[in-house]
Write a structure and sequence with these properties.
heterodimer; A: 38% helix; B: 8-stranded mixed sheet; 14 helices; 8 strands; 42% helix
């Protein structure tokens, strides 16, 4: 399939040359800012994100939040699509186990995400680009910390390699 | 549990079984029979639902070919309402295991069904079977003869060569051939009261313990041989499919026909997500992506389809290999499903089709599990 591969896009080329965690870039290049798609449950993590904002906590602006009614309603298809579309990471956030607004949605989310991460791991597709975190509505700080940690982690990992391919 | 011997007359297994199917209907042990029969051309078999023994043509559930996984057919028959008549359904192991999964998914009902499982030594692709049927008068006889001599044809489907369940699980009545000298007699194993009722009505003699023990031994040997093959396939597939580059190479010939989904006995959604307009976009979206990456593959979302299907189905995948058979591009879909399936099934200690009581992993949960994930 080598001939099917298109030239890497510019943004990625820079990383290809410097795949190491500590990424020093030349002045002409913009530093790598990972894009994180966040599927956040309405009752807990989304509210926590709100709280982090209203209390003016500082955290990197890399997350693009999508509000879902429950972490249990996040079908793996959306996570995979985000990754295939070039997201560098996907955060699925829900209520703490036992606290689901719909009683057991987050437990089911945990099984779904376990299967997803296992499949990604089996196929050597960076399963650590997918995070599942329990952040309650009161945990604005935990949301900000998670966003910071995930962003840092992804900066170390570099851009999602799938961006190099046109044949997805 | 009762084991009986059905004597094979003149060394002709197929005639003996032919008589058995007729008896089931004639003695009204079952009111109808779902059974594969030879096509008039003899180039393939097809599942048929027979209610009159006189119209039974050439039943041949031992033909080494699996055009469809019949769990789909049982689902079609019993999904809207359960059967109101006693129907004997003659199924291979992978079909029966898929049926158990479909029952758990509420897509089929076992009410009034008599599950007749047959020991399966493997099947050829439809193409290969047709070729054999054109060359010889009875591919089934040739096949069974080779099996009796202890040979396994390397042309059998890979899914069959790596099948760990040659005898069926969960059958009321099993037509036992593994480890049995089936030129003399075959073992009928009843595992349920329903199966025992049939043996009684057929007025068969009990088998001796030695025959049963010999069979158990042969099954263990065959299963071990298959397990080795599984390992070999998983190892090879792991290498072929690891990493974006390899995975994309493997799925590159996919033409997005969704045949794999159509023939999968377990892909049951009436409205598949991928047939929905969810990902139908405005022209500008496609052009935007193309601009961003220079080129995008069209139609989009082929790998998304496969990865999603793995997420939805791998936990229940019985490894029948129909997906791989249906693929016009020869993508080893089934092998990849076996690979990811083996990993996810292990997490939940789940074997698809093993038991009706075991809950589907995605339909249940434990409060204190998988804490390393979240």
């Amino acid at each position: 399939m080598a001939e099917e591969k298109s030239e890497p896009i510019e943004e990625v080329t820079s990383v290809e040359e410097k795949p190491k965690p500590t990424k020093k870039v030349s002045a002409a290049e913009e530093p790598f800012e990972p894009i994180i798609v966040g599927f956040l449950c309405n009752w807990c993590t989304y509210t926590a994100a709100d709280l982090a904002g209203t209390t003016r906590m500082q955290y990197p602006p890399n997350i693009r939040p999508i509000r879902t009614m429950c972490s249990g309603s996040v079908d793996p298809v959306y996570v995979i699509r985000a990754l295939l579309s070039g997201a560098d990471g996907v955060l699925v956030g829900g209520c703490h186990p036992g606290d689901c607004h719909y009683v057991s949605g987050n437990y089911k989310a945990r099984r779904k995400m376990t299967i997803l991460k296992t499949i990604l791991d089996t196929l050597a597709l960076d399963d650590d680009r997918v995070w599942l975190k329990w952040i309650s509505a009161a945990e604005g700080r935990k949301f900000a910390d998670t966003a910071t940690a995930f962003t840092e982690e992804l900066k170390k990992q570099g851009p999602n390699p799938v961006k190099k391919y046109w044949s997805t | 549990m009762r084991n009986a011997i059905l004597e094979v007359k003149n060394g002709n297994l197929l005639d003996t079984l032919d008589a058995l199917w007729r008896q089931l209907l004639e003695k009204e042990i079952v009111e109808a029979l779902l059974i594969p029969q030879e096509l008039p051309s003899r180039l393939n078999v097809v599942q048929t639902l027979v209610s009159n023994p006189e119209s039974l043509q050439v039943p041949n559930p031992l033909a080494p070919v699996l055009p469809v996984n019949s769990a789909r057919i049982v689902s079609q028959m019993t999904k809207v309402t359960p059967s109101n008549k006693k129907v004997g359904v003659v199924l291979r192991s992978c079909e029966l295991r898929a049926l158990i999964e479909l029952v758990k998914l509420k897509q089929a009902s076992l009410e009034n069904l008599v599950l007749i499982g047959i020991d399966c030594f493997g099947t050829y692709s439809i193409d290969q079977y047709r070729k054999l049927a054109q060359e010889t008068s009875s591919p089934t006889e040739d096949f069974l003869k080779a099996v009796n001599e202890g040979k396994e044809d390397p042309l059998l489907r890979e899914a069959c060569q790596s099948c760990e369940y040659p005898p069926p699980l969960n059958a009321d009545l099993t037509i036992g051939l593994v480890g049995i000298d089936f030129e003399k007699g075959i073992l009928l194993q009843a595992s349920t009261p329903e199966g025992e009722r049939i043996l009684e009505m057929l007025e068969l003699k009990d088998s001796d313990e030695k025959t049963v023990a010999k069979r158990e031994e042969a099954i263990a040997k065959l299963t071990a041989q298959r397990a080795k093959k599984v390992e070999e396939i998983l190892e090879r597939t792991q290498q072929e499919a690891s990493g974006w580059e390899n995975l994309l190479t493997l799925f590159a010939p996919c033409i997005n026909c969704h045949n794999c989904k159509t023939v999968c006995p377990l892909c049951y959604c009436k409205e598949c997500f991928f047939d929905s307009p969810t990902f139908e976009m405005e022209a500008e979206k496609y052009l935007g992506w193309a601009e961003k990456r220079g080129t995008i593959r069209m139609p989009t979302d082929t790998l998304l389809f496969h990865l999603t299907r793995m997420n939805h189905m791998a936990v229940s995948c019985v490894g029948c290999g129909m997906c791989q058979e249906a693929c016009p591009s020869d993508i080893p879909v089934s092998n990849i499903f076996r690979l990811v399936g083996s990993r996810v099934q292990k997490i939940f200690d789940y074997i698809p089709g093993r038991s009706l009581e075991e809950e589907l992993p995605l339909a249940t949960f434990k409060e204190d599990e998988l804490v390393e994930v979240g």
